[in-house]
Amino acid sequence: MTAVMAAGGAMTKAPSMPKIRFILSKQPDPAFDEAAIIKRLTEFYTDLQDKRQISEGIPQEKRAAHNELWQYPQNELPKSLEIRIRRWAQKIHRRHLKEVEPTRLSREDRAMLEGCRDGVEIFDLRSAHHIDEIAAALHAEFPWVSEATTHVWRSLHHNRASDRPGARFSPVLLDGPPGIGKSAWAKRLAQLLETPDMTLDATGENASFGLVGNQRGWANAGPGRLISLMLMRQVANPLVIIDEFEKSGSPMSDKGRSFSLPNSLLPLLEDLTASRWTCPYFQNQFDMSFINWVFTSNSQHGLPEPLLSRIRVVSVPSPTQEQINGLVLREAAERQLSTLIAAAITTALAEAFEAGHQINIRTVKRMLDLGSDQQNRPVLH
Questions:
Q1: Start and end of every AAA+ ATPase domain (predicted)?
Q2: Is the full-model pTM beyond 0.85?
Q3: Is 61 in the same domain as 203?
């Protein structure tokens, strides 16, 4: 159970998260489940049995053996009638599913949808001050990504002022050299928002299918990772990170139809279409308008204009030597590295900067890992 620290140090429960309607299509009614129908028909039969015998004036103790029709004990049916009732129930159940499900779903698929029948939770912000704290933490850890941090800060405040539920910001693309912490910034943002996140590598050949799923009839038919995450976690506003977006491919069908990741994303980035998005696999409509999107790229070359027009593009520079040193000292403190090891790392990095080498976050992480290994190495006697 999520809890927050109250005044005086006492732990209190965090306010419950609001819920929104997520599945917009009509769902199977539990009252038309086969077992529920059998139960109702059986009860109807036993009630009819009682009324018939009462109307004939048969005493209670003689009803069970009065004649061949009523010779069965209470709540026990003739075998032939059990079979007929089961067949009626199956027929009614199938007809109901045909009305509400465009495609036949498996028991497992139906169970996933059933869990969200009454809506899903939406992670919310506690206050305007909470938004400021998130932005401050991000800026302290990733000062070179300040423009993207400012965008998220303003967007969260705007969403809160508009009285829309949930922590939600407009989509953003971080464009810059590899290894400068773009994905790390996005993951840290998800942690601070306390919302589930998922990362999709756009370089995969079937990235579009992996994200939004594939309709039935294909050999690899299945729900995408995005809808699966939202149904399993029962949450409306996860943070989705699309890495190396400019490298996304375009799988082709046997009939020459293209399934590019940008084309799959277009309806999910517009509020109007995202709020009534049809899943290719489930063939149900879902409200996907609360999802938070962060894209990363090493170059904007090749990215389609219709997509860029829906995303705030932020150019992220490489961190400066001062920012790199700040990162080293902060990470060294968290790892409890000695001052000697931290000084050795900053000195080596200073020499690399002086020599004109390009230093990125991955290089710094590797040096910190080596420092941790060195410090934790057992002493030989």
A1: 168-318
A2: no
A3: no
**pLDDT tens-digit profile of 267-280?**
999 999 999 999 98
DSSP class per residue in 279-333: PTTT--EE--TT-EEEEEES--TT--HHHHTTSEEEEPPPPPHHHHHHHHHHHHH
Same domain, 308 and 160: yes
Same domain, 311 and 178: yes
Domain that holds residue 300: 128-315
Domain assignment of residue 380, yes or no? no
Q: Which two tokens stand for residue 133?
A: 């704290």
Quick one: pLDDT band at residue 266, thresholds 50, 70, 90?
very high
H helix runs in the chain, sequence order: 34-55, 60-63, 79-100, 107-114, 128-141, 146-161, 182-193, 207-212, 225-233, 261-265, 271-274, 305-308, 321-334, 339-354, 361-376
Dig out the tokens for 203 from the structure.
């370089």
User: 1-15, 103-117, 178-192, 222-236: which range is least confident on average?
Assistant: 1-15
Residue 119 belongs to a domain: no
